[in-house]
Design a protein that fits this description.
The chain is built from 6 helices and no strands. It is mainly α and about 110 residues long. It is globular, with a radius of gyration of 14 Å. This is Reverse transcriptase zinc-binding domain-containing protein.
């Protein structure tokens, strides 16, 4: 996303300024000094986000789609566009949740709408 050398998983999803801005927009921070699985587990314990793993997967998916748009379509995204896509995808995916989970998730999601 930032054309700063080798594209690795860590760089694309955690170290790239674009990704950092995206994570910051939804209030998720990462300890990039620990291995990936430990990083996710650690972040899950410090963030009070309903359905944290689902949030992370949707956010990463939207970062990946933005990356593909840049690589294959020469279309650049900004964190604001990414956030709109993230919220839309979260809303769509929340239809699969139980009613209680959806209510809790949507209260959190409303902060970004």
């Amino acid at each position: 996303m930032c054309s700063s050398g080798e594209e690795t998983i860590d760089h694309l999803f955690f170290e790239c300024q674009f990704a950092q801005n995206c994570w910051a927009a939804i209030g998720v921070s990462w300890d990039t000094d620990i291995p990936l699985l430990d990083r996710v587990s650690h972040a899950r314990t410090i963030h009070a986000v309903p359905m944290f793993i689902e949030v992370v997967l949707i956010a990463a998916w939207e970062i990946w789609k933005a990356r593909n748009d840049k690589v294959f379509r020469q279309h650049s995204h900004n964190p604001s566009t990414w956030l709109n896509n993230f919220v839309s995808q979260c809303t769509l995916q929340s239809m699969r949740f139980t009613e209680d989970a959806r209510t809790s998730f949507c209260v959190w999601l409303d902060a970004f709408s």
